[in-house]
């Protein structure tokens, strides 16, 4: 092949490989440039505006959302720290469980009347020379004290528990089978002002005792000790249900 023919062939190949500028290519390029410019402008506008462009209610929602997220994260931190502390020492966990069990035992013992108790409370003394205060009146006293939040109650030498009962026998009134001596003394542990106020309300036990011809006094004490104990007894019929067994309803 002659040199001139070879040069002509290379020029023809370069023209075939070169990109062709058509109307479609030009339109696509222009659209691409316009879209890129619009996106960049929007991003810049958002970056400049930030929270300044939000309305007050939108700002409040943003603040509430941030606050709630912060609270949830704080709660998660506390839970994780508690789990970490418990996992660090099995001995500490065992000691905490034992302490909790002992605390629960103490509470149940107080409610069952098997241990002495102390705390703030009141001392109610009823002077009843005519023996006009009867079992029904003692029940009213008990209900008023419990409604006022009394946690421990003693009447005479008897500790009041869930199974306590009152009975009349002639001029004598008894608690759980033990006769009450007169004057009748009632001790109750709880908030002194609340307990005293409950007994003094119009139509309450203080008014009732006065209407019967007896009299009463109430002393508020910052520290009161109740040492009368209720004797324990073994149930004859009831037995605990094993934890793995679920008893049918009504059975």
Strand and helix order: HHHHEHEEEEEEHHE
Low-confidence stretches: none
CATH C-level class of the domain at 116-226: Alpha Beta
Number of strands: 8
Query: Helix share of residues?
Result: 40-55%
Report on the biggest sheet.
5 strands, antiparallel
Rg over C-alpha atoms, rounded to the nearest angstrom: 43 Å
Instruction: Tell me the β content.
Output: 15-25%
Shape: elongated
Structural class: alpha+beta
Order of strands across the widest beta sheet? 3-2-7-1-8
**Which fold name fills CATH's third level, the topology of the domain at 116-226?**
Alpha-Beta Plaits
CATH architecture of the domain at 116-226: 2-Layer Sandwich
Question: What is the CA–CA distance across the termini?
Answer: 113 Å
What is the residue-mean pLDDT, rounded to a whole number?
Answer: 79
Secondary structure tally, helices: 7
CATH homologous superfamily of the domain at 116-226? Protein of unknown function DUF881
Word description of this protein:
There is one protein chain. This protein is α+β, with helices and mostly antiparallel strands. The chain has a domain at 116-226: 2-Layer Sandwich (Alpha-Beta Plaits), CATH 3.30.70. The chain contains seven helices and eight strands. The strands form two sheets. It has a five-stranded antiparallel β-sheet. It has a three-stranded antiparallel β-sheet with strand order 4-5-6, with helices on one face. The model has no long low-confidence stretch (mean pLDDT 79).
């Amino acid at each position: 092949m002659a040199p001139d023919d070879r040069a002509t062939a290379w020029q023809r190949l370069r023209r075939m490989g070169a990109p062709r500028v058509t109307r479609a290519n030009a339109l696509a390029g222009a659209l691409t440039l316009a879209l890129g410019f619009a996106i960049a402008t929007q991003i810049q506008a958002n970056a400049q505006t930030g929270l300044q462009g939000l309305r007050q209610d939108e700002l409040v929602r943003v603040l509430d959302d941030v606050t709630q997220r912060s609270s949830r994260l704080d709660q998660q931190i506390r839970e994780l720290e508690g789990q970490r502390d418990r996992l660090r020492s099995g001995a500490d966990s065992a000691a905490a469980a034992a302490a909790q069990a002992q605390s629960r035992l103490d509470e149940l013992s107080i409610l069952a009347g098997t241990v002495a108790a102390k705390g703030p409370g009141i001392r109610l003394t009823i002077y009843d020379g005519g023996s006009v205060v009867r079992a029904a009146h003692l029940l009213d006293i008990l209900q008023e004290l419990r409604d006022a939040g009394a946690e421990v109650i003693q009447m005479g030498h008897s500790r009041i528990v869930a199974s306590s009962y009152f009975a009349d026998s002639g001029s004598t009134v008894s608690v759980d089978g033990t006769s009450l001596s007169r004057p009748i003394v009632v001790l109750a542990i709880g908030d002194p002002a609340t307990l005293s106020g409950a007994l003094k309300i119009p139509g309450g036990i203080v008014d009732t005792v006065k209407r019967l011809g007896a009299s009463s006094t109430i002393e508020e004490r910052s520290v009161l000790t109740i040492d009368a104990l209720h004797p324990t007894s073994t149930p004859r019929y009831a037995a605990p249900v094993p934890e793995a067994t679920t008893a049918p309803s009504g059975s």
